[in-house]
UniProtKB/TrEMBL annotation:
Pfam families: NblA (PF04485). It comes from Drouetiella hepatica Uher 2000/2452. Gene3D superfamilies: Phycobilisome degradation protein NblA. This is NblA/ycf18 family protein. InterPro entries: NblA (IPR007574), NblA_sf (IPR036904).
Length: 64
């Protein structure tokens, strides 16, 4: 686990493509996009938490 995690070549290409798309956004578009991205990140975290609890058999009735 001492090795730094790096992006694959495909991910690096995708990042550069995304970078060029963002450069052409207006301020309002960028702000709206960031809010949507943050929401998606939170949903992803919630799904991972749910899947891990299910996989580990530690699901409870609460939504934490």
């Amino acid at each position: 686990m001492n090795q730094p995690i790096e992006l694959s070549l495909e991910q690096q290409f995708s990042l550069r493509s995304f970078e060029s798309q963002v450069e052409h956004m207006s301020r309002e578009q960028a702000q709206h996009f960031l809010v949507q991205l943050y929401e998606q990140m939170m949903l992803k975290e919630t799904m991972y938490r749910h899947f891990l609890k299910h996989q580990w058999g530690i699901e409870t009735g609460s939504q934490t």
